[in-house]
C-alpha cells in the first residue's frame, strides 16, 4: 500500500494526486532531511529505511529546479503535524497497482511523483504491480532541491 495525497493546487485550479512531497526549509540539512520532515508532516509517518531513487529535472528549459526522489520503507504511524497550507490535504492508502494506473492514465501527473513511481516499478521487482496488495507500505517521496549551486 502507498500513501498518496490529494490537494487543491492553485496553479492548476484542481485537486491533484501526488505522492507526499514538499520543499526544503532552512532547518533541513539536505533533501533527505526535507523528505523525512515532509513525510511526517503530511502523513504522520516515519520511515526506518530511506533509499534515493534519483533526481528529476522538472522544467529544465525554464528553470534549474530539481526534485530528489526517495523510497521510504519500514513505515510507522505517528501524530499528524500538518504544515502551513496543508489543511485540505487528504491522504489515501492505495495499492501500488492503482498508483501505477494513476500515473499511466495521466491522473497522477506530478512529474516527480510519476518519476518515483515508475522508477520503483522498473528497478525493483519487489514493488511491481504483480506484487501489489502484499501489505508492504512504502512511500516514493519527491522533494525539491534548494537553490542550485551547480552541484548535485
Describe the structure.
The chain is α+β, with helices and mostly antiparallel strands and 152 residues long. Helices cover 23% and strands 32% of the residues. The strands form two sheets. Strands 2-1-5 form a three-stranded antiparallel beta sheet. A hairpin with a 4-residue loop joins strand 1 and strand 2. It is globular. The C terminus is likely disordered.
Structural class: alpha+beta
Q: Please, how many helices?
A: 3
Q: Which strand order does the major sheet show?
A: 2-1-5
- Percent in helix: 10-25%
Low-pLDDT parts are 129-137, 145-152
**What is the end-to-end distance?**
31 Å
Largest sheet: 3 strands, antiparallel
Q: Summarize the helix and strand pattern as letters.
A: EEHEEEHHE
Radius of gyration of CA atoms, rounded to a whole number:
15 Å
Shape: globular
Number of strands: 6
Give the integer mean of the pLDDT values.
82
Measured by DSSP, the beta-strand proportion falls in 25-35%
